[in-house]
Amino acid sequence: MKAKKILVTGGAGYIGAHTAVELINAGYDVAIVDNLSRSDKRLLEGIEKITGKPVKFFEGDCRDRNFLLKVFQSEGPFSCVLHFAAYKAVGESVEKPLLYYENNLNSTIALVEIMIKCGVTDFIFSSSCTVYGQPDQIPVSEAAPFKKAESPYGATKQMSERILEDVSRNNIRIITLRYFNPIGAHPSALIGEIPLGTPNNLVPFITQTAVGVREKLTVFGNDYNTADGTCIRDYIHVVDLATAHVKAMEYLSQQRETKFYEVFNVGTGIGVSVLELINRFKAVNNVELNYEIGSRRSGDIEKVFADPSKAMSSLGWAAKFTIDDSLLHAWQWEKKIRDK
Ligand code: NAD
Ligand code: WQD
Fold this sequence. Notes:
The protein is an alpha/beta fold. Helix content is 41%, strand content 17%. The structure holds nicotinamide-adenine-dinucleotide and UDP-4-deoxy-4-formamido-beta-L-arabinopyranose.
């Protein structure tokens, strides 16, 4: 039987690259589209090294309908489109809101338009736990209401979800995955996260500090209402997140309905504080970390972690890697890209 063809947008980025690997290893025929605006070609090379197969890569923009149409016509018909391409830096989105609304919304709209034109029905969307804001109940389930988005980035995810739910009435079948905090790297250390400029996220900041690229990590506040006073998050290994996409795609393909929209949390269900994470990083990797306690970062949520039971029961998915695995793999990747 011929392998099913899958389109991965943003596949030269962090999560897309890991998902492309899991898809190729599961026997799918993957085409990657990326405009390389926020990526590093080393990830495409890494995908090839891990899978032992050449990557089908098409450089172009998801807002460019002519480009998309050509890819759909030459590489399709696609069984499913996995849409990772987006800008994701929360702080930058506050500085440049139009850049975020324009890219994140228009790329999604253009992609769905071309899917409809080409008769492709199945779509998986990368959303974020940021849509929940500070939830009233923790662990947070998919049924929790959206809070006012803390940033234009968060607003693009809320708006995209709304657009996609509406579009699913036009015979498109959609699964939205709300990721909690993706961390770590492939256990081979051949792909991982390469932040552009100063990292916004905690784990790349930790690894860059430990490796000597940054002088010091600042812990943003230790006066929260948590056991050690620092914020709590649900950190999920990027390979577990990638396998959730394969499961979601297979679940979607088994549905008989022509109109379909469902949302799943993708998290571990375990809350970890910033200080706990720092201490695990030091212990697992046997390295020191220069850090200080600073003031709170504006817009930070005190405490959030997932109720992942829906993904577990419907998709048959569960996180397999531990927080220690994630921190080990993140560190191995950091050392690899610094050639240490
Ligand atoms: P990333 O920046 O590493 O990857 C995104 C990729 O999309 C990049 O390679 C970039 O070049 C590409 N891209 C951006 N705009 C494009 C466009 N218009 N056309 C073509 N390519 C374009 O980000 P990531 O961490 O892999 O995130 C993937 C998705 O997951 C994003 O939608 C992001 O919002 C979402 N997400 C990420 C996190 C996280 O913490 N990393 C958490 C929740 C959700
Ligand atoms: C984690 C914790 C910080 C850096 C962001 C986006 C969210 C989603 C995931 C895309 C917090 C603390 C951090 C530092 C610190 N992305 N921290 N010092 O804020 O949970 O979520 O990434 O969808 O939308 O908002 O992740 O990694 O930035 O922070 O103390 O230098 O680490 O305060 O408690 P966050 P993060």
